[in-house]
Amino acid sequence: MAKRPKIVLIGAGNIGGELAALAARKELGDVVLFDIPDKEGLAKGKALDLEQNGTVLGYDAHITGTSSWDDCAGADVVIVTAGVPRKPGMSRDDLLSINLKIIRGVAGNLKAKCPDVFVIVISNPLDAMVYEMKKVTGFARAKVVGMAGVLDSARLQLFLARELGTSVKDVRAMVLGGHGDSMVPVLSYCTVNGVPVSQLIAKEKLDAIVARTAGGGGEIVKLMGTSAYYAPASAAIAMAEAYLKDQKRLLPAAAFCEGEYGYRDLYIGVPVIIGAGGVERIVVVELTSEEKALLDKSAAAVRELLEAGARL
Ligand code: APR
Asked: What are the per-10-residue average pLDDT scores of the chain (312 residues)?
């Protein structure tokens, strides 16, 4: 009899709590909510609340809260949100020095306790955090991925659907590149049930939608004083589910490039296949020369961030 997968969530804050709620509702496995000792009560309290929620909604999942790394041993999937979120007026890059130290500590513990785990990083600035995670753990590139593209693409899909007055279900879109101002909405692959959006929306409108997408996280930070958590959690759960159920989904995600798209030793948002092997493949798609130039610019911005991180 197969055992339930063990899903460990590092960080029991806003995104961590929503991740736990979704993982439980979808019955993806048993959930461990981990946080620092000062926040152990928060982790335990959310876990208990969510277990009680299961008796109302009717899901079978054991959810526990902890601040002990021993409880994380043997995880199948780890989703990392440890760190601080943005406050209004901050860019994701402003979080670098605080969150880098946190990620280094988390990565060291994961290496010791969960050597075979599939790691999904959410903490910002994402591209630098996921790079550090791979560097410190030494895990294979297939086992360390960053969540950004699914979220950024969801934002783009929403804005396109609202502009067109169509269901969000029919809009497919892909945002590549770094998870920052330089992200690249790849309009040549944005369609409404196969119809290219360029046939349906005027260029000026599309430009405005692209700009709103790139600032989509900041728009929410400005409104509520902290960063988004529902859509980020759903996006990471889609990636975890693709791994646990071997779905072979093609999703945009921050992956470690070893020559793909001309990049090396760099995490950046590219289309990947996620299945039981983790990031099984980076899919290299054709881009227009304008899109490739934007991706190169985004890669340069990520490299700058990595260089800043290396000095810390
Ligand atoms: N180990 C585990 N948890 C930690 C650590 C650590 N070393 N350091 C901090 N945390 C915890 C905090 O105690 C807090 O409970 O991480 C949690 C973060 O939760 P929130 O502050 O609610 O932030 P959240 O909105 O969940 O965002 C987390 O994801 O999208 C990114 O920019 C966002 O970097 C931020 C991260």
From this structure: 92 98 98 98 98 97 98 98 94 93 98 97 97 98 98 98 97 96 94 96 97 96 96 98 98 98 98 98 97 97 95 90
Q: How far apart are CA 75 and CA 113, in angstroms?
A: 8
Q: How many helices (H) and strands (E) does the chain have?
A: 9, 14
Query: Contact at 8 Å (CB) between 273 and 287?
Result: no
Length of the chain: 312
C-alpha–C-alpha distance, residues 4 and 20, integer Å:
15
Nearest CA to ligand 1 atom 5: 82
Backbone angles phi, psi at 140, to 5 degrees: -60, 155
Residue 234 CB burial class (10 angstroms; 0-12, 13-18, ≥19): middle
Which domains does the chain show, CATH number per domain? 6-146 (3.40.50.720), 149-310 (3.90.110.10)
Distance CA 312, CA 310 (A): 5
**CA 263, 266, 269: angle at the middle one, nearest 5?**
85
Alpha-helical runs (H) found in 5-39: 14-25
Residues contacting ligand 1 via CB (< 6 Å): 10-16, 34-36, 39, 81-86, 95, 99, 102, 105-106, 122-124, 226-227, 229, 232
**Which one-letter amino acid corresponds to residue 33?**
L
